[in-house]
Specification:
By secondary structure, the chain is an alpha+beta fold. Helices cover about 55% and strands about 20% of the residues.
């Protein structure tokens, strides 16, 4: 199956994100009220929606709180410039849909894990990093780093590192390999994501 590495990291991140949304209190939010807003919205979604309605609602939360255009451009890397405007739009839509489905499914599997927050570091490049650990019932805690920046429309999540591994960089590597193995064109990748979004 293609894109296996991306799927593994995305699903692991989805579980971590579910924990973050459930347990993070407003007093711990930094920067601004981004995380608190996401928490409130997702908790409401989990309580009131199921199936396709839940997936659509999760996608809206992602669109409002993640810098999806930035993340999409970064994930496609050099191939972004090779893609047409139509392909870029399709890629963003397909990736959003596939991820919303993965998150939606994971939210239904929340099993009481807890998240411990660490230090918050503001970098000169405008990125704020929130350190945390995902505490599990069994096994070692998982280290998570959440990167947030203000894109001119308020703070947005731009990347998450799981045990030091960047979701964006994992995507870029996996997507690049897929493109290279399919004639060097972004079209097969877009079609794969579109097909996955419909499964």
């Amino acid at each position: 199956m293609p894109l296996l590495a991306f799927r593994r990291v995305a699903m692991r991140l989805a579980g971590a994100a579910a924990v973050l949304f459930f347990v993070l209190p407003a007093s711990a939010a930094d920067p601004s009220k981004l995380i608190d807003t996401v928490a409130a919205e997702v908790i409401d979604i989990v309580k009131t929606k199921t199936g396709a309605d839940r997936q659509a609602a999760v996608r809206k939360v992602m669109q409002a709180n993640f810098d999806l255009p930035y993340m999409t451009r970064s994930a496609l890397g050099k191939y972004w410039n090779q893609a047409t405007e139509e392909q870029r739009a399709r890629f963003l839509t397909a990736l959003e849909t596939a991820e919303a489905r993965a998150y939606s499914e994971r939210f239904g599997q929340y099993e009481g894990q807890t998240l411990s927050l660490g230090k918050v570091t503001a970098r000169p490049n405008g990125i704020t990093v929130v350190d945390s650990k995902l505490n599990q019932a069994t096994g070692q805690p998982i280290k998570l780093e959440w990167e947030v920046r203000d894109n001119g429309q308020g703070p947005r999540i731009t990347d998450v590192k799981v045990e030091g591994v960047s979701l964006i960089m994992t995507r870029r590597s996996d997507f690049s390999s897929y493109i290279q193995n399919n004639g060097g064109s972004v079209e097969p990748l877009i079609q794969e994501l579109e097909a996955r979004a419909k499964r």
